[in-house]
């Protein structure tokens, strides 16, 4: 039987980039809590596991996320399922990708690039537009340990637009390391949302990396609803004057689940703006950690950057850690960061209950009001109702609320 290391080496031989990524991963090894980026996350359960790179079946329970009017592409265990998918648009193909904009200091990014022999490549141009939202579904079900490495490369030409939703559903003992890279050329606009769902023994440790040129706009959201551990790196470089990046996240966790977000935003050009908002709702003994850094390069005058982390604790055993950071080498800037952690407002709950709302429904309304600031910005609009439904499913009393009311689709 071929070992994991041998299979990984064979897969990584496909491109020079994959080979270099494998070499970096072998040099780095599995991180420990002595590594600053992993101080709150124990990777012990991943070490010494004989992972399989191939395999994986359709998820046994339905994804539950359907977007009417979107072009749906389904990948099972990393392989494209043409029978379950719509026809590939002209701007989409499946091919090897021999370059990356992601930070290769991250071991999970290196592991994905080394093991993923193919990527979903999306190149949106005036001649090959993306006229409808694209819904990319990644599914994997496996009873034995499986390494699942989805990789997506998105390039949007000057003045073009793209709306893309990634749905990741994991069932079984799975380590998923998705890497999605976005290059937005001058004046382009990209909306990306990643929705993650998994069983209690599934890990998802992924990256979203964005590069924005002059006056380009990138909105990226990461929303985990399930799985044992969800770790997401969001990286962005504002490389052209007047670029804007909006990064958002909402993590909902109970039991002993762990959600971790690592944020890195680099302002490398003048008059760029960025807004980062990450929220967590934690019950049981769940934990969340947030580490955010804004770097403003020398010469990046006119920078306006806002970073916010907020956590709502629903139980006394839930914990949250936050480390916002600024590193500024320009003098004409407006940069702020803030972090809050607290419990639901008892006065607000009393106000709702005084108007005849039962305790569980009142508590769910307060959680929804807290989360709506993130969910209401999702694109396409139909995704808002789907995400609201998933959130309410996890809240006691949430069944009394109608997701089409709390997250209405605006009239066209």
Short key terms for the protein model shown above:
19-stranded mixed β-sheet; 2 domains; alpha/beta; 412 residues; 19 strands
3D structure, described in words:
It contains seven helices and 19 strands. It is of the alpha/beta class and 412 residues long. The protein folds into two domains: 4-344, no CATH class; 345-412, no CATH class. Strand 1 (71-76) and strand 2 form a beta hairpin. Helix 4 packs across helix 5. It starts with a helix and ends in a 6-residue tail after the last helix. The model has no long low-confidence stretch (mean pLDDT 91).
H and E order: HHEEEHEEEEEEEEEEEEEEEEHHHH
Q: How many separate domains?
A: 2
Overall mean pLDDT: 91
Low-confidence stretches: none
Largest sheet: 19 strands, mixed
Class based on secondary structure composition and strand pairing: alpha/beta
Count of strand segments:
19
Level of helix content?
Answer: 10-25%
Radius of gyration: 21 Å
**Span between termini:** 57 Å
Total number of helical segments? Answer: 7
